[in-house]
Amino acid sequence: MSNFELSSPQSYVNQKQATQVPNHEQKFVVQFWGVRGLIPTPGSNTCHYGGNTACVEMQLANKRLIFDGGTGLRVLGKSWLKQQQPIEAHLFFTNSQSNRIQGFPFFAPAFIPENSFHIYGTAASNGASIKQCLYDQMLLPHFPYPLQVMQSELQFHNLNPGKVVKLDDVTITTALINKTQKSIGYRISWQNYSVAYVTDLQKEIDAAEQESITHLVKDVDLLITNISTPLTFHKTESDNSHWQTAVNLAITSNIKQIVFSHHHPDDSDDWLDQVQIEIASAFPEALIAREGLILVVGQ
């Protein structure tokens, strides 16, 4: 099973970023703990951007939100253990594929009785609930301990696309953004700030998906999305089609900043460096996510 750690280059946050992290009660802070899609990809050619699968933490309004539970969730959990105080958090899954849930059995805070977690997800393509999917992956022979050994309070919430979740003055809006993968996206709104988490964007978007996606991303301060890579080996593509879909969406929907995450396993550091240059020429407020990246929304 997973045993991936952040190496020094992956956990690096420069001084400018570090000094930006403020009182979380007054700011909207986003941190990337896992940025890879499909399968963890540790190695010398991925050490700058990182090899852990998807996990993004958001802290705002004195609340902790987590989006997706890939292997980056394990590293996030280890950082929380240092706080030595009860934790309450909300964990939102985009779908139930292995790269979104495989870090959950290794999420150490879930084994501590004083902690409490609200877990949200939509039905998988086979109709299984998010609770069932998390439960199944912890059964023998896949994992030595069942979900019941987690001693924290776990509350499961089944989401239908279009459902709105209210956490005091924080609003989380959902929509179906990829009907093939049964993936949902999220829009997180608080005060005058908004972030969209849409990481299953396809190269070609049909009309129904376009309407749902636009509903989530219009006028947001930050869009977290994916480079729309096909499952086939993509380095033979000579144009910019792998990121142009998201850039077009940003331009037409008045999005202030894009962060590309959920990188394909074949996306090496060198290739992502080149993509960063290409994207910046078309949309200057665009970044390629790496593990350890911290952003303050609105700054």
From TrEMBL:
CDD domains (alphabetical): TaR3-like_MBL-fold
A molecular function (GO) term: hydrolase activity
InterPro entries: RibonucZ/Hydroxyglut_hydro
Gene3D superfamilies xref list: Ribonuclease Z/Hydroxyacylglutathione hydrolase-like (3.60.15.10)
Source species, domain of life: Bacteria
Keywords: Hydrolase
Protein name (record): MBL fold metallo-hydrolase
Native source species: Fischerella thermalis CCMEE 5268
